[in-house]
Design goal:
It comes from Pundamilia nyererei. The chain is α+β, with helices and mostly antiparallel strands. The protein contains six helices and 22 strands. Helix 1 packs antiparallel against helix 2.
Length: 495
């Protein structure tokens, strides 16, 4: 019976895996179908636009040629009309002179005949008919405007879609992941991709898409991020910056474009993006700390004088008696793991048991006091403050009454002569026992602890008056190498 149940469980597991695979496949097909419809509409619209441009060009060229022919016709007509008018006038003058000459032949008187003959001779000399060119000024030949668009027609008949470039090939060995940026390099499609077609177009630019995933498989799983786009890349290389590495991998693919024709995407590659990711563990947050995403703010409950630091100097001597007792404070909150009293602490939700880790902190504009560091989760009591015991290390900053910066551990504090940083980088090398605090804006080491960690660590924060925000999913920055080489000789507060 047990063996049959175990076999059935294996079958169920196999069916469940196949079911998930089929669901992912169907989602991929549906996504492809949607993309096909969108792309079809786009290329159809592009085709209509190109045909409209072609028709417009033909209309413009036809109008230009028609105007040239019309202009030449009007010029020749004007010349011929002028000759026609002059010829008609000469013909009338010639007919009148001919009639006069015929009448002169009938004159019998010698004196009248000689006078008329002289007049005729003079009129013939000045007659328009004898000064007029009797050949048309222009010909009716318009053969210089003969056209033959057979070559153009043949060209139109050869019109076809642009040859689509093949997919580039991403060179995984040349891709670089550094400082939360990824530099992707690929090999462009070769000249053979055009198939020897002289009408092929050169590649104008590339499109790159990437998405975060926790699987090295390129098939998108339901619930994972969609592709993000980087367009109009000229060179076969691009750097994607400002990334948060909150997934195990980033899948990347690229395609080439020539004019408006886009080829197929390359086979995606999965680039590993290892980084330390954590969030605030809201279940540990002091009741007066409000956790919202990557931000923690101090929101006091009850009267302003709940914390003794906010009372007047005249009440300083009685501040202890006015502070709610730990037991009363604990009873007013739900959750046994919450910090209480004057600790104002919240922990991170991801442990560090080996390796190197890095995150950053920024105080909000209205901050008065905060601490940041690491702690053994099990070593902190509900009312403990960071740096008071052997299981926590922190950097404490304050601008309450006066500005101060100190490194704290095991109830010992070392005052640091450094301006209050606006952006603090925290680096923890669990295996080597290094805990460094960096002024990121000035790229200076503020303080370094050297110890030996023996229990799982969690990020730890104290906030009083104001708030802080953190940045996680960060790789260990390359600039940390400069601090690590000099840190070996630095003294620390603990052995």
């Amino acid at each position: 019976m047990d063996a049959q149940k175990e076999a059935l469980r294996r079958i169920i597991s196999t069916l469940a895996s196949k079911n998930e695979e089929l669901q992912n496949f169907l989602e991929a097909v549906d996504h492809t179908l949607t993309g096909l419809q969108e792309e079809s509409c786009k290329v159809m619209s592009d085709l209509e636009a190109e045909l409209e441009k072609l028709n417009s060009a033909l209309e413009e060229k036809g109008a230009e040629l028609r105007y040239i022919i019309k202009e030449e016709k009007q010029r020749k007509e004007a010349e011929l009309q002028k000759q026609l008018s002059e010829g008609k006038f000469a013909l009338v003058s010639c007919e009148e002179l001919l009639d006069f000459a015929n009448q002169t032949l009938t004159i019998n008187t010698e004196e009248e005949f000689l006078a008329a003959a002289k007049q005729i001779k003079e009129r013939v000399t000045m007659a328009p008919a004898f000064r007029l060119t009797t050949r048309p000024a222009v010909s009716d030949n318009m053969s210089q405007f003969t056209v033959d668009f057979s070559a153009e027609r043949a060209g139109l008949q050869r019109l076809h879609f642009l040859p689509v470039p093949r997919a580039p090939q991403i060179d995984a060995s040349s891709c670089v992941v550094r400082d939360n940026t990824i530099t992707v390099t690929w090999r462009p499609p070769g000249e053979a991709d055009s198939g020897g077609d002289s009408s092929s177009r050169p590649i104008e630019h590339y499109d790159l898409e990437y998405r975060k995933t926790d699987r090295d498989s390129t098939l998108r799983v339901a619930g994972e991020a969609c592709w993000e786009k980087v367009c109009d890349i000229i060179e076969p290389q691009v750097t994607i910056s400002g990334l948060k590495f909150d997934s195990r991998f980033i899948a990347i693919r690229v395609r080439a474009r020539n004019k408006a024709a886009a080829g197929e995407f390359s086979e995606p590659i999965a680039i590993e993006t290892t980084a330390y990711n954590f969030s605030f563990d809201a279940s540990t947050a002091h009741a007066e700390l409000k956790v919202q995403g990557d931000t923690v703010t101090w929101e006091p409950q009850g009267v302003k004088g709940h914390d003794p630091r906010l009372r007047g100097k005249e009440n300083k001597s009685s501040s202890r008696s006015a502070t709610p007792s730990p037991n009363k404070t604990a009873a007013s909150r739900g959750g046994r793991d919450r910090f209480a009293g004057e600790s104002y602490t919240v922990l991170g939700d991801e442990e560090m048991t080996n390796g190197c880790h890095y995150w950053e902190l920024r105080p909000l504009a209205d901050w008065k006091s905060f601490s940041v560091g690491v702690a053994y989760r099990g070593s902190l009591g509900r009312f403990d403050q960071l740096g008071k015991g052997t299981g926590s290390w922190c950097l404490h900053a304050s601008q309450w009454l006066q500005s101060s910066l100190a490194a704290k551990h095991n109830n010992r504090a070392k005052t640091l002569d450094w301006p209050l940083p606006h952006r603090i980088g925290i680096y923890c090398d669990y295996d080597n026992g290094d805990l460094l605090f960096i002024d990121v804006d000035r790229l200076r080491l503020v303080h370094a602890f050297k110890t030996k960690f023996s229990q799982p660590l969690v990020p730890a924060f104290t906030v009083w008056c104001g708030g802080i925000t953190i940045a996680t999913g960060l790789q260990v920055p390359s600039f940390m190498g400069n601090f690590l080489t000099t840190n070996r000789s630095l003294s620390s507060l603990s052995p």
